[in-house]
Amino acid sequence: MSTADKTPLLTVEHLTMRFGGLVAVSDVSFTANNSEITAVIGPNGAGKTTLFNCITGFYTPTVGRLTLRHPDGKEYLLERMPGFRISKEAAVARTFQNIRLFGGMSVLENLMVAQHNKLMRASGFSIAGLLGLPTYRAADKQAVELATYWLDRVKLLEFADWEAGNLPYGAQRRLEIARAMCSEPVLLCLDEPAAGLNPRESAELAELLIFIRDQHQTGLLLIEHDMSVVMTISDHVVVLDYGRKISDGDPAFVKNDPAVIRAYLGEDEADEPAAAAGEGA
Amino acid sequence: MTAISQTRPPRLDWPAILRDAGLAALVAFLLTVPLVGFRTVDRPTGLGIELHINEVVAAIALVFLGRVGLSMIRSGVALPVLVLSLVVAVAGFFINLPTETLRVVMIGGGLVIAIRALITVMTHRSKLTQAERDRRMDRIGAKVQHASRYLAPVGILFAAAFPMLPIADRHLIDIGILLLTYVMLGWGLNIVVGLAGLLDLGYVAFYAVGAYSYALLAQYFGMSFWLCLPLAGVLAALSGVLLGFPVLRLRGDYFAIVTLGFGEIIRIILVNWYQFTGGPNGITNIPRPSFFGIADFSRTGANGLPPFHSLFGLEFSSLHRIIFLYYLILILALVVNVFTLRIRKLPLGRAWEALREDDIACTSLGIDRTKIKLAAFAIAAMFGGFAGSFFATRQGFISPESFTFIESAIILAIVVLGGMGSQMGVVVATLLVIGLPEAFRELADFRMLTFGMGMVLIMLWRPRGLLAHRDPTIVLYKNGAGAAAGEKGA
Amino acid sequence: MDYFIQQLINGLSLGAIYGLIAIGYTMVYGIIGMINFAHGEVYMIGSFIALITFLVLGVVGITWVPLALLLMLVFAMLLTSVYGWTIERIAYRPLRNSPRLAPLISAIGMSIFLQNYVQLLQGARSKPLQPIVTGSLTFFDGQVTISYVRLATIVLTLALMVGFTQLIQRTSLGRAQRACEQDKTMAALLGVNVDRVISLTFVMGAALAAVAGMMVMLIYGVIDFYIGFLAGVKAFTAAVLGGIGSLPGAMLGGVIIGLIEAFWSGYVGSEWKDVATFTILVMVLIFRPTGLLGRPEIEKV
User: Which end of chain C is more exposed for a tag (fewer CB within 10 A), N or C?
Assistant: First the structure.
């Protein structure tokens, strides 16, 4: 684990999101560091996905400030940016709880779409591309190389020409992560990446996430239910309950926080030894 | 699975079949009594009414028999139904029937049942599931797509050689021009509907903008066709941006209705702005195109240009202009086609298709939905504008009547029936939708009726369109080693 | 002032008609989320059936106006509902789980079919009819006249609205209908026959559209096979304006559209009144897509 460049990447301050009378997220503040895995956990309806949707621009928060600081020092106020610019300029990528692939397109095409903005510039907003100029062809080739790299990483290389919708479930999850990484993000947000995966696939996922953190200096923010995954790989855990933050710290701290046990792990204390053993590895 | 239906002898549950058919006949009775049974007629004393009881009886009988036939097919007794329904259809041709309507209903109904029975006989299956049907059709689509690599050049060569063939007379070339105009419009609209997945019900507005741009520019400023053609495209694209900007945020059905509204607004403006557009009378005497500004197609030449035939040392023929127009629209259509084929392999085209698949995922990847949709809208509008100014110069006369909603619906039907996004599908659907009615002129009254029913039936049978099959725009394994490609090609 | 009141009355009766058609759009959209593009044609068919019933009654010899009107209403509603039912059964039900565009295309095809079906059978020329209900109330020394037909339209629409609201709120059918609007799968699990509820929705929409068709024929005394298209688009506009899915919204939207049209024709000129309607449609969809009484919809991620 590299400890060299752990600067704050995402700072969430006093985030509140109301839908009519319902307060889904209430005054939540935390920080996610560069090259770290930050997990947001909490029972169902705790406001995790709402929080995510605020960070990735699908909702505009009612109150609060979301600052993203790039490693080069540039700052972006996410709550003021329309959805697509959060990925395009602030370089925040995300996956979805109920996988959103371009099902009718091939696996490789999915990864090419992820590099849209870069390729759009290279294609001279299609004009150079329509004329078949070499500058675009070079950029296209590079894009395929990046896609191939990530396909190899997520063990989908041989499926490159498959229709994405025909992949098995676990492969679709991995493809979504590869697609997000092809947009070369500084912050990758994962909405329940382990949902529906079997234990072997979960372990592979954990490995992949650690690889992304260590080799690509990307900050990861994930929502997760699978405690074994969270406790094994997270550097930092934020716990939400009823839209409020009830705990914040490293896995060991959170696990023993009485507030968390009361709200979340209360009935499930039997799981703890297993989680602890996992963490030791 | 085929074994099951073969080993078990077909059993017909007659009481149930008859009850079901009886109910259908009752519905048919209620439907036909008011509108088929009684006809309003103009009498000197005012509106009168005529009784057409035989047609009601015939309709009920047909529905009853058809329903029984369908039930029998479903129970596995397909062959007798096939024979009988064919007999009915053929009888429709030859028997003296009281009305033409009845003839069409008889032939049409007989054929539908016959096709249904034929499919069952051929597949040994009483009912294909939607998924199976889709897979079968997809395989056909894939084959066509694959074959189009060879078919397309042959088709283009044929289209290019067509006016030179001995069979090509003025009438056939005119039909050729008509078909190519719709192919071009279909390919143009395909960008918005097929690629970007936006249901545009007002495409005819851009066709109208193109046509009126040329007609008005020629009328007021005496500008030539060759100058106006690009201008018409630009103006149509501009109107596309103008109309598109506010509405592109809307989703799905709302978008469709608003585009329909815009199409109607443009038409109403054309009708009501009498001083400028000539109102319902339209614009007449729109100048014909010259031969690229070098020569004119009239006998003596015009506008200071020499006559075409003497410039090239030919005998004068009024066909020259028609043939020229034919080639003009052929080239315009091919430009749209080449554009679409190329843009699909570019980021813009891929983004369009991604948008169709999942627009939320697009946003999460930094794609500006509005901008991308606007590009699709504007480009399709531009091609519509080109086609419009071609239409104006070919007709020499335009009026708002050529730009009604039904025209939009026809173009849309071509795109959707052909299979969204399929270039070949547009050609096939144009032949079906425009070509078939041209071939059966005597049934012109039934053209729109069958067209409407055809739209419904094709949607029921194949919601994704006839030749909907998508080839990836980029492949990693060129030899088709990719597993999916192998699975599909087989 | 008199002129104003006159236009107000005209607008209200026209609005009542749009509202009746709009209910069909809004209910269908609420329950299966599609625009029933053929609904305008259903209204047109309703008006033809009313016309034909009247002519047949004349032949049979029933000329007592109240009875004739009642029979027209009954037959128009009954037979038009059969059309509504059949359209759903043939063109929409098999497409319930298809890609979103498929049912809309099917609906457009259905609309083209029905239009040409009526044109072919009943002729393309418009059907003029001598006024059936004559007479009017006059106010302000004869400056303002309210014909009995317009009055009847407004009263009948109000009565239908009251009855219909009761039906939706009080009966088990209405409850099932509202349940299906919320969640079809769950409703089915709880024993609601979803197919039947959807069919009934189409039947009710068609019956109300038939009333609108009959009233239009009585007010204007002339119909043709093409009236469904424009009325359909306007009624849809009304449904959207009121907030699609909301019954009072559909009525409110209808009245607003009717008033705008009446005043626009009265004070500006009737040529541009359709542009006014379409402009409203576009404006509402852009600035307030949920309509006046609609619930906001959040993009599900």
Answer: N
* pTM over the 0.90 mark: no
The angle that helices B170-190 and B405-418 make with each other, rounded to 10 degrees, is 80
Q: Is the interface score ipTM higher than 0.95? A: no
What confidence tens digit (pLDDT) does each residue in A92-111 have?
Answer: 888 988 889 898 888 999 99
Write the pLDDT tens digit of every residue in A266-279. 554 444 444 444 44
Q: Is the pLDDT of residue A176 over 70?
A: yes
Contacts of residue B17, defined as CB under 8 A and 6 or more positions apart, other chains included, come to B68, B71, B72, B75
Mutate to test the interface with A, among B337, B362, B364, B371 (most CBs of A within 10 A): B364
Is residue B102 located within the same domain as residue B161?
no
Residue A152 touches partner B, C-beta closer than 8 Å: no
Residues B295-304 pLDDT 10s:
777 777 677 7
Q: Name the closest residue on chain B to residue C282, using Cα atoms.
A: B258
Please judge whether C298 and A53 are an interchain contact, meaning their C-beta atoms are less than 8 angstroms apart: no
Amino acid at C226: Y
Structural domain boundaries, residue B458: 136-489
Q: Which spans in A97-222 are helix H?
A: 107-113, 116-122, 127-131, 134-153, 169-182, 199-216
Residue B205 sits in the same domain as residue B181: yes
Rounded-to-integer distance, Cα A121 and Cα A125, Å: 6
Q: Do B144 and B78 belong together in one domain?
A: no
How far is residue A39's CA from residue A194's CA, in Å, rounded to a whole number?
Answer: 12
Cβ within 8 Å, pair B46-C129: yes
Q: Are residues B148 and B112 in the same domain?
A: no
Same domain, residue pair B345 and B377: yes
CB A63 within 8 A of CB A16: yes
Hey, which of A121-135, B254-268, C36-50 has the most confident mean pLDDT?
C36-50
Contact C275 B42 (CB under 8 A): no
Tell me: the pLDDT tens digits for A223-239? 887 777 788 888 888 88
